[in-house]
Write the structure tokens for this entry.
Amino acid sequence: MQEMIISTDALSYKYGKQLILDAVSLEVPKGSIYGFLGPNGAGKTTTIKILLSLLLSSKKNVFLFGKELSANRTEILSKIGSLVEQPAIYGHLSGRENLRNRALLLKVSKERVEEILSLVGLAEAGGKKAGKYSLGMKQRLGIGLALLGDPELLILDEPTNGLDPNGIIEIRLLLRKLALELGKTVFVSSHLLSEVERTATHVGIINKGRLLFQGSIEALHAINKPVINIHVDDLSGAAGVLLKEGIATDVLSDNLVLPYTSHVQMGSVNTLLVQNGFTVYSIANSRKDLEHVFLNITNN
Amino acid sequence: MQAFILSIRSEFYKSRKTLALWSAVILPVVICSLVCFGYFSNSAKLVNTPAMVQWLRYMGSVMGVMGILLLPMFVIFTTYSVNNLEHRSEMWKSLFSLPLNKWSIYSSKYFFTVILHIICLALFASMILATGNLLGTLKPELKFQEYSVSTLAYRLHLKLFLSSLGIISIQFLLSLIWSDFLKPMGLGFIGTIMGLIAANTGWKYAYTIPYAHPALALQLNSTKGKVPSVDLFTKEIGVSLAVAVIAYILGYFIVARRSVK
């Protein structure tokens, strides 16, 4: 059986009378990039805060590295690097000094600080005041701080928030490198399905405090099947022709939508429509957005 | 204990480029130098004063400015600066997710503030003695070298330190609750004025107001012709220490709550 780095057993959390988490049972396998997906306010940050022992679960039902969290807080936290909400950085210190200060607390060598600066691409800007860094640089420094203690588990809360496309790609590559080359387990939250699909090996989907789906990315794809969107001049006529050929379609906001199986299938549908005199403005395959995945999952 | 020491070292590292740390050094050096210069340039008027009285006056000129007005302001400023470092980037959360004991992290910050005050007051006492002796060398007619007040100076500053622990803790607490400067400063200022009035009017219960403690600590038992004695453990010092302990414990719970919001 695969070793679980994080596991929670029906974790619930109330803030006042409001139920924030409702029986969430996370299973995060070792070496995975676990995408924790959900809209804003779904309970992602609350879950992360519980995993970091910033919020306390009323029951002993949070386990990291196979040990119960509240009884082994310091030992467990020594194996975790985290970035919660915005990166916590001292603006009056340089990037290097921020890392050295953290290194002091974690008893990490100065050489490791230089290694981390290179790893997150801040070697040249290491001497610059962190307060003057761009958002992307701050985020990378935040990840650097999380990585400094060479943690086995990295917990990142929306690390690509506010980054430009280049920054997002850099973070994505870094996360992959950490998991695939360095064998770290990465738990990363996001509200963007497309982002999680590109990086994660495992996915947990949370909404309104309930874990709606959990499994490998392949299992998610099995639920969130891709579709073909066709923009055509005569919607009903085209739908009729396709139906005659045994291809059922839906109409969704001026588009014909049908399940995607392969590029060959998409090409033959296109040929069929063109041969029957229809003008195809566009034809493309896509996945449903997060809301539709939620609907699919809840309906299932 | 190791976590506490690491955290204290980190506090010094973080603060070495801030005014909070440097003001603890600059303040005694600047004030003592100014008073020393004043004595030096007006020495002709001061030559007839007996050696002991000369020292007491000299010490009084520094402590009158510092102990009564500047000390509360210094407390307000340093407690704000030390906490503001963490408030600015919501650092508490990040600190509490490190593999360090939460009490150690909080306590290191509190004790770092206290250490800043120890440095500042110890420097004040030392600078008073150093500049007084310098004056004695430059202007022997002022008779500074005929008498020594080192024990009195250090005891008085120790008492001033103990008496300020209550306000240090209250201001530390206020700076934990509010991240802006105005609220802790405003409340601290009102407290200081109230304390001064209560201490100077000789109100019977002035010792119950922490902000009155530094002023009360500087009221010496003096008999004409004798060196004033400094009774270290007076009522106001007892209240100051009690307030410090309560505010210190309360502060932890405020920080622990803040880290999770």
In short: The interface with chain A takes residues 6-7, 9-10, 13-14, 17-18, 85, 88-91, 93-101, 259-260 of chain B (CB under 8 Å).
